[in-house]
Amino acid sequence: MATITYKCPSCGSSLTFDGNAKEMACSSCGSQFEVEALKQAIEIEKESENFNEGTNWQAKDEGFSDEELNRTRTFNCSSCGAELITDETTVATECAFCGSPSIIPAQFTPGTRPDSVIPFKVSKDRAVELFKNYFKNKKLIPNLFKKNNQIDEIRKLYVPYWLFSCTADADITYSAKRVRSFRRGNYRITQTRHYRIRRAGTVDFKDLPVDASEKTDNKLTESLEPYNTKDALPYVPEVLSGAQASRADVAIEDSKKRADERIARSMQNELRSTVLGYESVVPISTKINVPDGTCYPALYPMWLITTKKADKTYTFAINGQTEQLTCDIPMSVPKAIGWFLGIFAGSSAIITFIMSLILQFR
Ligand SMILES: [Zn+2]
Ligand SMILES: [Zn+2]
Questions:
Q1: pLDDT digits (tens, 9 = 90+) for 121-165
Q2: DSSP string computed for 140-192
Q3: Which residues fall inside 5 Å of ion ligand 2, going by CB?
Q4: Nearest in space to 295 (alpha carbons), one of 187, 192, 210
Q5: Residue 297 and residue 248: Cα distance in Å, rounded?
Q6: pTM listed for this prediction
Q7: Hey, is 361 helix, strand or coil?
Q8: How far, in Å, from the CA of 56 to the mean position of ligand 1?
Q9: I need a labelling partner for 77 at 20 to 30 A (CA). Which of 32, 125, 154, 205 fits?
Q10: What single-letter DSSP state applies at residue 341?
Q11: Which ligand is nearest to the CA of 100?
């Protein structure tokens, strides 16, 4: 005869059957459990064991054609080390990253070819206006910035990204508690109910961007999101005219890892937001599956503006499509939060959210 040993969901000790209460009891923490509930808990755990975990990304990388290479100019910045490309008609005189004039032509080493480009919608004049407007009616800004804010440099830069699209499945089991305290005669009784809660869902992600340039801070680029890929054009060297593009130099495996993290975080938040009304909720098993994701390289437009104050350089970045602005000026609380946390682009990525398998027991 097979015997099943039930473990206490609260503390992990073995449970024994209490004949008087007709329940399983834990001698270690004093919890009691209905046999039926324990059976359901085991069922739930078994079902999620069958869930396929893992992510699989197919990257599109076609490489530059010889003809494109002929129409592309490459140079390196000997000041900051940036590797930049532009088209044959653009005379590059300074580095789009650091503004240094010490840029030298370089041999083009064919790397990742952008598949599409979001062109600039924000003009240079408009970028300057956005910079000036930023300081108006800002109460939390340091006094240093109250007047005479001059643009030191303004540069037009395309930032390389990998864009990830997939249908992701998540299966998360939570351990939750509800605590109730009441008086009975001379006793104060605290009753804790334990729950196993399982949530499963599917989320479609479309063009989730991951910064592919080492030179741009991920926190900065993520706080400029979202971009709208419906304006994107197929890549031709001419789109770089008058601008510079940074080379995609982050290893694709690292970009995939970052996409996995963002997808996991987004799905954890979505599923967790449906588990309500408990004193404590702890995920005990989190499984995410992306069976056939795809990603492709793209260029996104950004204006970079620097301003100098008391010998320090501050950077403003403006989304060249949407006018979204971010900067590293301290004390401006809402902007600082955006800068440090990186505003999550989950809202643009999540198109559908289907809840299924909502199981609860007590
Ligand atoms: Zn126990
Ligand atoms: Zn530079």
A1: 999 999 999 999 988 877 777 877 877 888 888 999 999 999 999
A2: SS-GGGSS----SEEEEEEEEEEEEEEEEEEEEEEEEEEEEEEEETTEEEEEE
A3: 77, 79-80, 82, 95, 97-98, 100
A4: 210
A5: 9
A6: 0.80
A7: strand
A8: 40
A9: 125
A10: I
A11: 2
